[in-house]
Amino acid sequence: MRLAILGWLKEPDSFPPQDRPAHEVGVCLKHIQARAEVSQSTASQFMATLQRAGLVTCTRVGQFSHYQRNEEAIAAVARSVAIC
Amino acid sequence: MRLAILGWLKEPDSFPPQDRPAHEVGVCLKHIQARAEVSQSTASQFMATLQRAGLVTCTRVGQFSHYQRNEEAIAAVARSVAIC
DNA sequence: AGATCATATCGCAATATTGCGATTTAACGA
DNA sequence: TCGTTAAATCGCAATATTGCGATATGATCT
User: Fold this and answer.
1) How much is the pLDDT for B1?
2) Chain B 56-75 residues in 7 Å CB range of strand D
3) Which residues pair with B69 in a beta bridge?
4) Residue B68 and residue B24: Cα distance in Å, rounded?
5) Residues A77, B83: Cα–Cα separation, whole Å
6) Which residues contact A12 (CB under 8 A, 6 or more apart)?
7) Dihedral through CA B71, CA B76, CA B77, CA B80, nearest 10?
8) What ipTM is given for this predicted complex?
9) Is the CB of B29 under 7 A from strand D?
10) SS3 assignment, position A2
11) Are B70 and B57 spatial neighbours (Cβ–Cβ below 8 Å)?
12) For residue B26, which of A6, A20, A30, B66 is within the disulfide window of CB 3.0 to 4.6 Å?
């Protein structure tokens, strides 16, 4: 599931419109929750886990938390898998 | 742990000698168990799991089960991770 | 300040995974 | 055939993960 979310974040603008454009600050948690069809707490925890793993970054703007892929870190994981 | 085993199998000849050369038929379960320092049942289950996942192949010769990496399948996994 | 909206955290039940000992199956040699 | 060795399977306890509802925190607006 978290993997699916990570994939969705490749097209930030495929999410509904929001105050600040998604391709700039990331996708609002609310929208991620809606697409994932999980509870708010679960969505929040998913993103917290991804953030702890370094795979996404969080930009807070006012009351909104926006999440973006950390391409650098994701590529690093891919590289480390490639040498398995 | 299973990941570590998969890595060890890249150098089959780094394991102790066995009836049939490891680079031909794969590494005997016994040797994998010894290096992993787990029980026989656990080692057997690890390899069964890797085999179900398609990441290794098993060649049985007499009473010995030999395991080899399935480079094809491993590369496929790496590729699928790369597009995350 | 008080109401409201967005998110984070806590505690928990359900489920999955890990690794083991005991037992079973299978192949070999005397 | 009997004893031995190698490996697979069964059942289980310990631990980890998943996802939730309830609650707490924090920002915004009136």
Assistant:
1) 85
2) 58, 60, 63-66
3) B56
4) 9
5) 11
6) A22, A23, A26, A27, A68
7) 160
8) 0.82
9) yes
10) helix
11) yes
12) B66
Q: Which nucleotide is nearest to B60 (CA to C1')?
A: D7
Identify the segments of chain B with pLDDT beneath 50.
none
Q: CA-to-CA distance for B43 and A24, rounded, in angstroms?
A: 49
pLDDT reported for residue A84: 86
Q: Identify which of B3, B7, B84 has the shortest CB distance to residue A6.
A: B84
Amino acid at A83: I
Q: In terms of pTM, does the model score above 0.90?
A: no
Supply the pLDDT for residue B48: 96
B51 phi, psi to nearest 5 deg: -70, -45
User: Residues A39-84: pLDDT tens digits?
Assistant: 999 999 999 999 999 999 999 999 999 999 999 999 999 999 999 8
The residues, any chain, with a CB within 8 Å of residue A64's CB and separated by 6 or more, are: A18, A19, A20, A28, A29, A30
Q: Of B66, A24, B11, A41, nearest to A32 (Cα)?
A: A41
